[in-house]
Amino acid sequence: MQNTTHTNCLRCRRTLTSAKSQATGYGPTCARHIRHAEQTVNATDYKAHQVASARELIEDGAIVPLKSVVFIAVSTDGTETYKTAPTGCTCPAGLKGSRCYHQLAARMLLAA
Known about the structure:
The structure is a single chain. 41% of the residues lie in helices and 12% in strands. By secondary structure, it is an alpha+beta fold. It has one domain. Strands 1-2-3-4 form a 4-stranded antiparallel sheet. Strand 1 and strand 2 form a beta hairpin. Helix 2 crosses helix 5 and helix 3 crosses helix 5. 32% of the residues are buried. The mean pLDDT is 89.
């Protein structure tokens, strides 16, 4: 992923002041909530690499809220964006009706 600096938290929209928070896109409290939510979301329907990809997507700040349950997610190679929600995604896998890691990342963020 590209090296992006965020000025506001991707979760709560508060101003980020530390360099670490600006790099990740989340303040310390929101990051803690997200880590906790990752533990509580049922990911049994997902493969291990999908869970890892969902975590990476969140850590890279490559999934941002668009509306209440809709997010914009960046593709693995960073060349495309998809609209995603916990129940669907516009990525190739999501369009085929498969569960994708974008959906899992959206579920994790909504649980936070």
